[in-house]
Write a structure and sequence with these properties.
heterodimer; A: alpha+beta; Heat Shock Protein 90; five-stranded antiparallel sheet; globular; B: 127 residues; alpha/beta; 5 helices; 34% helix
Chain lengths: 147, 127
């Protein structure tokens, strides 16, 4: 893909390797830094940082690899998290608070209690989650800038 | 309450943020589960936790949490301290357990950054 294929609103692409727990959360911090100083309200930046954090933890925890893309549109901030991995069989169940398939290495980080996806949904204005079992998962979260 | 008063009340050591002991903190949130911190904590509060890994620092950074109080005398790694320095999050360290720390701070006027979670009483039990 050439650079010309990327939309102008693309602010950053962050690549994630599955099971790479040491630096988990670093993309959330990077995304937050990149949104500062652009006149975006701090409360919106906090929501994006939370959404990115949970999406990042999910990819590290469950997928082989993935990317998080940050878009700054005139009226919204968009986070897209796409991964190659096992996918989600039952999305409604995965969205249920408290439902989790996490192992101890995730729980040691302070995550894996079945709150991640519901947190992302809670902090998003628009939330889309689709998955192909055996192939991967695509998550899109939109936070509107004008409420 | 100033961060320096929190230090004194809990006989805490300042691991990061000697230059930030004058910041005022009025609310706190206590948890070891970072997903719950991300869900419920508010900016400007004190995070009271027993989790001393870089993810706790990054969680605090995501939410503009004022400082972290690490309880139970948890072992601190270089990576944790480095991350806190890099992101400018003050770290206090105490041997008091979370219950004692919260009790002492509450007694001196610190309150929860939220009192309760919202929710439906009929949804207590998940199948």
């Amino acid at each position: 893909m050439s650079d010309e294929d990327f939309p102008e609103s693309l602010e950053g692409i962050y690549r994630i390797q599955g099971r790479d727990f040491v630096d988990a959360g670093i993309i959330s911090s990077e995304v937050k830094k990149s949104l500062q100083g652009k006149g975006i309200p701090e409360s919106i930046i906090r929501r994006i940082a939370v959404i990115t954090f949970e999406a990042e933890i999910n990819i590290i925890s469950y997928a082989e690899q993935g990317t998080i893309q940050l878009f700054i549109e005139p009226d919204a901030i968009i986070i897209e998290a796409n991964d190659i991995g096992p996918g989600i069989e039952d999305i409604d169940l995965a969205l249920q608070e408290g439902y989790s398939t996490a192992d101890d290495s995730i729980r040691e980080l302070g995550f894996g209690a079945g709150m991640g996806l519901s947190n992302i949904k809670k902090f998003s204005d628009i939330f889309e989650l689709t998955s192909d079992v055996g192939q991967g998962t695509r998550l899109k979260s939109i936070v509107k800038l004008n409420g | 309450m100033k961060l320096s008063e929190i230090r004194d009340l809990l006989d805490a050591r300042v691991i990061v943020g000697e230059d930030k002991l004058d910041i005022e903190i009025t609310t706190a949130f206590g948890a070891d589960l970072m997903s719950d911190v991300l869900s419920f904590a508010r900016s400007g509060c004190l995070l009271i936790t027993g989790l001393s890994n870089p993810q706790a620092v990054r969680t605090a950074y995501a939410l503009d949490i004022a400082a972290i109080l690490v309880c139970r005398g948890k072992f601190l790694t270089d990576k944790f301290i480095e991350t806190a320095r890099e992101l400018g999050i003050p770290i206090l360290w105490t041997r008091f357990i979370i219950f004692e720390s919260c009790g002492r701070l509450f007694q001196k006027g610190l309150t929860g950054c939220i009192r309760k979670t919202d929710g439906n009483e009929e949804k207590i039990i998940v199948r």
